[in-house]
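During the reporting period the student researcher (J.K.) took over the structure-prediction task from the postdoctoral fellow and processed the backlog of single-chain submissions. One of the processed entries is reproduced below for the supervisory committee.
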Amino acid sequence: MKIGLMHFRVGETDGVSLEMKKWKIVLEKQGHEVHFIAGTLGKEEGIKIPLLAYEEPRNLEIRQRAFQSLEDWAKDKLKNEIDKLAEDIYIELKEKMEDFDIVVVNNIFSLAHNLSAAIALNRYFKENNTKVIGHHHDFYWERDFYSNPTSEYVKEILENIMPPREIKHVVINSLAQESLKNFKGVDSTIVPNVFDFEAHLWEKDSYNSKILEKTGIKENDIVFLQATRVVKRKAIELAIDTLSELQKNIKNYVGKEIYTGKKISEDSKIILLMPGLDEEPSYKELLIKHTKDKQVNTIFCNELLEEIRDEEKGTFSLWDFYAISDFITYPSVLEGFGNQFLEGLFAKKPLLVYEYPVYEKDIKKNGFDIVSLGNNATYINNKYEIDNSIIKNAASKILEILFDNERAKNIIEKNFELGKKFYSYQTLDIILKKIFDL
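J.K. obtained the following structure tokens:
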């Protein structure tokens, strides 16, 4: 079959782009012809529909007036602007789209980011009798931004084509499946995020070892990697709290080796390494203050991170950072699924995890061996907090794993095999064969 994978953008590091890439790889292995369709393509090849771009200025203005405030627009003007943009997108589709057996529409029919795009696509697919699968990663009714439509016309669009009820629906977790059923009365298939567990393992080498030199980390420092973006819902302060507790006890292990072979000395430090993009400056400033208060060595180094390592520029891939780390921190309080969790499994590193709702509902039952921060965080003074007894217990377990070579290796291998069993490309292959058997 000829299959289109459509979104506002592809070829970037956001979760939707990453999953689309995985779908393309698996579907092509099945023998299908697969094309990306998006407003921006990044470094990918595909069909470019510029008016679908995530940052398209006309749509951003409409979006603001449709959900925040009409300001100086009348309701009729809002409707006219939505319809005009929809017509222009429809014209672009007619000019640039090819004939597809199926088009998988990612988030355009569920997030309400671009109402005009949803109108144009719904019209185009009906007129061309194209089969459509709605792949819904996010829902507008779960975002505060979209909670107060400013006109009846906007409400009609949300009700009728967000998403269209007659198409096939795919979601990424069981909470989303329940939400879609409750709000829209439609059934859906769960396709979890996956990872290529058959790929070459990430290993420390002469090049990525230079990360230590560039960041001032010593060979005998213990490196904890926070591989996520630096945004509030990642609750990185919980990792800082845990490492602060850990730092108090590390002196008791001088002369001993951790499972990666590092020998602890008097000057060994606990390091929290953060190469992720700083997307909320105020939150980063809060974290900097929190690390000072908690006396934790934290290194922000996004300038060293690129999608692919570039030795001429002296930059590294995210996989390089995993390779030189000893432990992974993943204290997020909210995730659609959890790509970094899967990356940690593949990297063969132990994980510190806050049991966010999707982890608790969908992932935990598979038996992963993690150091848990529980599931009962409270938000106080712009920071997430959990009971100090949980922090102390987590720090104690981390030390046990670090300094017990056999236990660490058993945990790592067990988690890798479970990841391979439940969240591999082979798993995705089986699910997609059922979905595309229309």
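The committee noted the following: The mean pLDDT is 95.
J.K. will present the remaining backlog at the next meeting.
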